[in-house]
Description:
Elements: H1 2-20, E1 46-47, E2 64-68, H2 77-82, E3 85-94, E4 98-99, H3 103-112, E5 117-122, H4 129-139, E6 150-153, H5 167-185, E7 190-193, H6 195-201, E8 209-213, H7 219-222, E9 230-238, E10 246-251, H8 255-265
Parallel strand pairs: 2-3, 3-5, 5-6, 6-7, 7-8, 8-9
Antiparallel strand pairs: 1-9, 2-10, 3-4, 9-10
Helix pairs in contact: 4-5
Amino acid sequence: MKFLIKLMLGLAVVTFAVSCARTPPRGGAPASYQPAPGPGATPQLGDRRPHAWTGGAPYGHAVHGIDISRWQGDIDWNRVRGSGISFAFIKATEGGDHADPNFRRYWYEAAQARIPRGAYHFYYFCRTGAENAYWYMRNVPREAGSLPPVLDLEWTNSRNCPRRPPAAEVLREAEVFLQLVGRHYGQRPIIYTTVDFYRENQLGRLNAEFWLRSTANHPSVTYPGQRWTFWQYTGTGIVPGIQGDTDINAFAGSAADWSRWLQARLVR
């Protein structure tokens, strides 16, 4: 009987330890929930579809953040911050006439939770670089302490704008956007892009800081020779405080590097 009691107590302790080892998303964890396979600095983060990485995994990076749009719905920002998220990029605008309906709310709520946040613009190729730039500037506050602007360059699947201009035009109009928006906010925008778009348009020729999407391999494999600051490593991430899949990103350096980067790149 004493042995049975000890065994039951031992099982209870193990169960409690496992339950405390991660914080599932609000509303309970789906059956497929798995914590990041570590030994990352953010063990509360997870991935609904984890896989083996070649060329290096993202989990060992010290600084992780999210990018979001209206599809994330209501967000518990304090819980997001408590999970180890260090930054957020929020969708603000598209093209020359569309604004994300949740942008202003997210912008305010992230600031209240003391999460460094910036705004990104989804580029439409049926508008000029100047039109895209002025629409972004019209909707995103020039606020001290915010992260640099972001230009999201990827091919659109829109029926309203199926246009795919040649690389020379892409580079020329992107540079117009970078210069106009950079002057307005006092920080040259970061470029977010995908593997196919980067290759087809030779984006490495631009004078820019890069945020690269690579969900199967390390960026050194998918973007050989390209330096990067942010790496979007999953679109099926699980972040406490957010319902459903969330994009998660890693910063290239250490926590000390992150502090130095913020000092140099925050809008003033």
